[in-house]
Amino acid sequence: MSFAARLVAPLIAIVLLAIPAKAFETSAKAAFVMDITTGTVLLNKNADDPLPPASMSKLMTLYVAFEAVRDGRLTLQEKLPVSQHAMSYGGSTMFLDTTDRVTVEDLFRGIIVLSGNDACAVIAEALSPDGTEAGFARFMTQRAQKMGMTNSTFMNSNGWPEAGHRMSMRDLALVARRLIEDFPEFYPMFAETEYLFDGRAPQNTQNRNPLLRLGIGADGLKTGHTQAAGYGLVGSAKQGDRRVVFVVSGIDTAAQRAKEAEAIVNWAFRQFTQKDIVKAGTEVARADVWMGGAPSVGLTPAEDLTTLVPVLGADDLKAEVVYTGPVRAPVAKGDALAELVFKPEGLPETRIPLVASEDVPVGGFGVRLMTVSRVLLNRLQQGPEGAI
């Protein structure tokens, strides 16, 4: 690997590029694929467009409900009543009625495995600030905003077609990642392929996720379909030490969704490899120091750096160190001073913070005198401004 240090102006804005990984063409209207082990975006197609999410938005309802269990506001064995409103939902349901009282754990499986619209409404009404599903949707929108989901607005708890109910593919990937990382105790439910609730819904017992039985490491998360949204899927798969999360939406048929999702998983794992770039504490460059007790300071990553690279370009990764300099003394060990920038072919640019490897105090009188002398000499050599 080669490193090239360069100076940049202090006020230049840095923009991270979101370049789609080459060699994969998706038929989805919108898609987002991320290797969450390294944080590398592999595919971005209209990923920030707010679109009808259909049942995929149930993931946010589940996240809020999991938080409630974690915080003690719900318990898994608590039994919740079913309102007339919850019972009135059509589509995918648990076939609940107003005589039921259903445990929270059963409702979770009813949402995850059976995609129960009624189950979502029961949870929503239990957690709503005003006892209504609409109130829960407003609360869920506020919670999503705090999580960084800036392109999500909820009008209900289950993705039932309603004007203004929208999520972006990036937001869906974000909540999927949070579910995996924040609630490992609940995440295994997403890999369950069948759930028999009370024997009352024999036609709705199977998980619709087409990847779960393929042996490719898929273990979640949620399908979705409405006429407006088309067929969609929020999926995740783990192979070895790597995990990939992906979202597709706007596919024409269920069969095409299954084929596309499997192809994405295979492509993400087969065409990219994880590469150790540099160990924490390894000096990769030195930055000039102004008025310091030393003329320069070492730059090192604070943590081990691992990234994802295309298989064909794994041994040809170039990088440069970018910093605003010279750095003014004093410098403390661990101060963030620069960035390591590398651009694997076909992947977004990645920037990793670099920190000072040692302390550099302010220089003594002699150092300051020499620095001022050099500046004055340079100005004299350059001559008056505008001179030819």
Structural description of this entry:
With 388 residues, the chain is of the alpha+beta class. The chain folds into 2 domains: 3-16 and 276-380, Sandwich (Peptidoglycan synthesis regulatory factor (PBP3), Domain 2); 30-270, 3-Layer(aba) Sandwich (Beta-lactamase), CATH 3.40.710.10. The protein is 26% helix and 25% strand. The protein has 8 helices and 16 strands. It has helices at residues 58-70, 84-87, 104-112, 117-127, 133-146, 169-182, 254-270, 365-382; strands spanning 3-7, 30-35, 40-45, 79-81, 101-103, 218-226, 230-239, 242-251, 272-278, 285-290, 296-301, 305-310, 319-323, 327-328, 336-342, 350-356. The strands form 4 sheets. A 7-stranded mixed β-sheet has the order 1-13-15-16-11-10-14, with no helix packed on it. It has a 5-stranded antiparallel β-sheet with strand order 3-2-8-7-6, sandwiched between helices. Strand 10 and strand 11 (296-301) form a beta hairpin. Helix 1 packs across helix 4 (117-127) and helix 1 (58-70) runs parallel beside helix 6 (169-182). It is elongated. The two termini are 42 Å apart. Mean pLDDT is 87; it is low at 1-5 and 7-21.
Topology:
Blueprint: E1 3-7, E2 30-35, E3 40-45, H1 58-70, E4 79-81, H2 84-87, E5 101-103, H3 104-112, H4 117-127, H5 133-146, H6 169-182, E6 218-226, E7 230-239, E8 242-251, H7 254-270, E9 272-278, E10 285-290, E11 296-301, E12 305-310, E13 319-323, E14 327-328, E15 336-342, E16 350-356, H8 365-382
Parallel strand pairs: 1-13, 10-14
Antiparallel strand pairs: 2-3, 2-8, 4-5, 6-7, 7-8, 9-12, 10-11, 11-16, 13-15, 15-16
Helix pairs in contact: 1-4, 1-6, 3-4, 4-5
